[in-house]
Amino acid sequence: METTLVATSEGRHGPTERKALDQELIRLERAIRESDGGGLKLRWQMGREMLKLRVGRRLPNGVLDLLSQGLHVHPSELVARMKFAQKFSTEDQLTNVISKFTTWYDIKQHVLTDIPRGKKRYAGTPIRRTLAAFKHLAANRVAYLPVEKRLLRELRDIIDDMLTWDDTGLRPGWDAPASADLGMSAGF
Hints:
By secondary structure, the chain is an all-alpha fold.
């Protein structure tokens, strides 16, 4: 009994079409593994073939696992190939991106990720983020409701209190914990 890589996509592909698609996916995967240049165009072609299997905007349940097991490729790699084919739907777009990024690793890291690697979504300390939020509020000022004004006054009071703290983070007149006398922690 011959196993197929592609499940019966809810009646979308008949046995002949499934067999042809299986053979094409296997051929592409072999070519990718044998390619010297990373097989960028081959990965794109394979992604396009897999996109044909979608029903609506996603693959039917179980199809990604079948492909992964049958081709011996991790599911995330297959998803990246589909994303690559979807994002660059024409050969001109493909040629353009390949001219800028010459390895599959670079394409996955710099083109296919939603958040660029190495950049934090929220840079800076919490106090700097708070300052930025307040600057945004001030720049986009609208009439504040009484509840909001009360909250702003409460924030002002907290900030005023924080400004009286010394460099150790202690409030004036408060004693340091006993363990801080000699820089030793309690119990040692």
